[in-house]
């Protein structure tokens, strides 16, 4: 039986204060992002959804679309510590988590000290994660799932919040190591970053070929981010909407649905059900509502499910994408 979380009076007041200013804060975040990024509103909303739910996200897009810039700018605006890890085939697990070094103390005595790696941050950008070897990729697993790092006989807790926002390039597959399904499933969302529209690209040119580089201001504190994550989980959801989300996830399982059997070898697990509900709650909060709608569930179904569905051979042969399957299943839900 799950214990009910007890909040101190001052914590309740802070939560109320954070909730009251959420709508205005999101508008401020949007305005600050526009100083640096042109377009990509849906991508920004989905990254914020991942942050609000205290979960990790995988960003996929062609080089030069601003994935790193978007993540770094969001971290700056939300006053979160940011570190970038460039994944390469020679990356070692200790390059990710940290390692012990020998240090000379007072009196000439030598002792071991743990030198923390880049995972000791709030937002870790794992750039081109599929270029790292499986050994280095697995070093992130404990940090992502347990929010801790174990080295030797010591365990080090990571700061709150801690999120991995990983990027991968969909066109360069030579010399890469595709993430195993177990690790892909650790990401709440797979966010697709597409080309900007012509007018957006024109503004990008103006932004980055002018005399000065635009700068942003901090719009929310780290403590407020943690409070938003608590509020996300407290967001009420009706039995009807919850049942609708369960119907969508269940419909992806070939053994339960004839339509899924036509396109898929494997469907989504209960982790996807949890992800859809959490992401829908966050989207409702971002849009200034105190309830979750069916539209929230439908919108988050794509990024939450697209990396969890395994297409069968016939679908791949016909060039069918997982988003096409999700769209078809949503029509019948």
Descriptive notes:
The chain has 333 residues and is of the alpha/beta class. It folds into 2 domains: 1-209 and 220-234, Rossmann fold (3-Layer(aba) Sandwich); 236-333, Magnesium chelatase subunit I, C-Terminal domain (Helicase, Ruva Protein, domain 3), CATH 1.10.8. 48% of the residues lie in helices and 17% in strands. It has 15 helices and 11 strands. The chain has helices spanning 9-20, 22-36, 41-52, 67-77, 93-97, 134-146, 181-184, 198-209, 222-234, 239-250, 258-263, 270-286, 294-305, 313-317, 322-332; strands at 56-61, 82-86, 98-104, 110-116, 123-127, 148-151, 154-157, 163-168, 187-193, 264-266, 310-311. The protein has a 5-stranded parallel beta sheet. It has a two-stranded antiparallel sheet with strand order 3-4. Helix 10 (239-250) packs across helix 12 (270-286) and helix 10 (239-250) packs parallel to helix 13 (294-305). It is globular, with a radius of gyration of 21 Å. The model has no long low-confidence stretch (mean pLDDT 86).
